[in-house]
Model the fold of this input.
Amino acid sequence: LYAVIFIGGYLLWAANSKEG
Amino acid sequence: MFEVSSTFYYVLIGYFVTVLGIGYWAGKGNKSSEDHLVAGRSIGSVVGGAALAATQMSAGTFVGTMGVHWMTGASFAWFWPGLWAGWVVSALWIAPKFQKFKALTVADYVEKRYNSKLAKALAAVLILIAYTVFLIGQYVAGGILLQTVFGIPNTWGSIITICITMVYTLKGGMKASTYSDFVQGLIMAGCFFAAIPVLVMQAGGFEHIGTFITELDPRLTGWYYSAKDILGFALVFGISMAVMPYELARMYTMKSQRTVRLAIGFSFVFQAIVGLSVALGGMTMRSLFPALATGDSASSVMSITVLPPLVGALMVIAILSAIMSTVSGIMIVSSAAISHDLYGMIKPNATDEEKMRLNRICSVVVGIIPLIFALRPFDMVQFIVMLQSALVASFFFPIVAFGLNWRGATTSGAMASMLTGALTVPIWITLGKPFGLHEVFPGVLLSSIALYVVSRMTKPVPAECLEPFFGKSN
Done:
């Protein structure tokens, strides 16, 4: 015949982000 | 018209009963505009993420995008990373700021940030016009789908789709819309989990598909489009998607800023499953049916002739879901533009009950007007539907993205920016798209320049209006 790494990285960042 | 098994009808009826049930359940707790328009700000990140993805994916994702993959192979799927980059821009600088500022509609934001009722009215009117025409395209797609599969006359297909959507949206408001979107997102992702293995096996396995289409045209498994072209276009599209009022309105429904960021991440998961499956589906269909008249029929041929009845039925429901979730999100945003934004200005002391009643009437009206055009298409419709996405991006992107991040944006700057964006797009198309540039580029660029230049020349917004966005200035 990227998505896994990018989405995994993004979710890690978002989960650790702060309010504010 | 194909022979349709009774399984199809059972699945379709089951789906309609489910979304109507959600509408009834969500409507029980809805008392105020805050419940109706922003679901009481109670939505979590997984449900919210699925709703963002389901609203973004419309009829075009299944029918048009699969057709493009059938025609051009794998490389078009690199469109998704470009789109995600646009969403990341939003997650960093736009969406969480929207959640923090607890308004009810996007026009509310414009009024508060630019301290101007006139700017708010302009935003509400532009939203209303852009989305009325967007709905026309969605209705036509829903009608064609039901006609192709069930042989229901086009008119009735459109009417059934709209009535069901209208009933659950009216009864349950934003909460019903969000939870239906969640179910619809699950159906879209789930149907591909079921369909792709079946489809690939039918076609003789990955190895065979790849070898066959590579022999047909080596570009199908290579760079048919160059990565640069596709990412550039998708980034602009992604940024415009991130400021779409029907997506921004969903940010108000979430619990916290962290929820917003996570929801965008979960929407990527849904998008990746659907996007990669649509690409694989298109390529597989090319190996099975190399000579379809147009790529656009790949998805319906796949549902009816290739997949087993239950999976095929799910696929049809998924496409219908994509249409209905987009329509219901727009219905709420458009009717709020009339009942909350415009009526609230004309009659400032209107009670919440009055606005709610008007909102329900408006939902019916904004749902039905596009139907009239969808049933009697005339030449202008196609033209307007094509430009609405570029139009919305051009007049909203600067006032949202720069307004939230640059305190220097002024009221006159915002008005100039909206008008410049709204005028540039149709003029650019009328000129025949000079340099072959998509109209969204000059639209966003010129409206951004207008915002900057006019803001530098006019008096700033009073400091107390900026406080909710930037904190105290000293």
Observations:
- The radius of gyration of chain B is 22 Å.
- Residues 29 and 330 of chain B are 22 Å apart (CA to CA).
- Chain B has 20 helices and no strands.
